[in-house]
Amino acid sequence: MENTSTLIYALDDERHIRELLAYNLEAEGFNVETFETAEEFWFAMRTISPDLILLDIMLNDANGMDICKKIRGTEASRKIPVIMLTAKNEEMDRILGLEMGADDYVTKPFSIRELITRVKVQLRKAEAEQEKELTEIKIGDLDIYIDKHEVLYKGHPIELTPKEFDLLVILAKNAGKPLTREYIISNIWGYDYIGEETRTIDVHVRQIRKQLEDTNEEIIKTIRGIGYCIKGND
Description:
alpha/beta; Rossmann fold; Arc Repressor Mutant, subunit A; 21% strand; elongated
């Protein structure tokens, strides 16, 4: 099962399609937000960027091709995988969708199992590409150099233990997204702690905050009942 920190946006003006996508993708462990209109979609995009977008071509209030083009033309969203959904089955529509920047194309009616497989393939490709490219992360006054295992805050080096460094990196890679303690544990330690032992994360976060003088949680925020989050760049 995929991790619930993976966020998928689905824009489709057909309610039963939105419900079908949300139900089945959430059953796979994804976090899914659905939108009926382009206006709702763009409002959400200004708030937080998803990991993947399912985009209907024929919408009541917009053209999916134009939306895809805008996604690809915006620096903050240009690398988000886009899978286009449409009732059309003509070769020219598929070509146009791909030329506008879509990563994949699924024709309605579609097999939900096939769609989920395509979603996972695109997410794996995006993750591999990100890992290949990402050697430096900058969030506000915080600079993280992954290859060097070096952290600067306001230009000054910060001393972190290996586990504290890994924790800061995983939060920074997912800037803007709340991560659960369980997710952090499994991705850093490689196995799951049970119950109260997940509080070891809290200890590491306190130490990082101390180094960053983050007493007001301006950098690492506590998300009550969930875990932690680093706010992304505005």
